[in-house]
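Collaborator request, handled under Task 6.
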Amino acid sequence: MSTREKTPEQTYTFVRRVAEHKGWVLNPDPEFLEDLVQGLTSNYNRYGYYLCPCRDGEGTQAADKDITCPCDYNLPDQAEYGHCFCALFLSPAFAASGRDPQPIPERRLE
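Structure tokens returned to the collaborator:
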């Protein structure tokens, strides 16, 4: 467990800044976004890093590097589907389309 826990507000600030920096859009559904932020916060407080809330990790930062938010699969997922695996981050074009994110295939090999 991390010696310095994060609050949901700190996690929301983190994901908002990532989205702004990368030019992405956060999922506009407030309840869905809150669930993802809660999951990221719980994972940070459990593991000490923002493990993707939609994937099972190994529990070590080295083993989970590729699925630490924003994950390594975010860009190819956005390019192909318009959003990342957990639909936290949307491409601007997808967000402008008004479509709802749909489940997408997992790129991470087990």
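The cover message to the collaborator said: "Residues 30-47 form the longest helix (18 residues). The chain is about 45% helix and 5% strand. Please let us know whether this matches your experimental observations."
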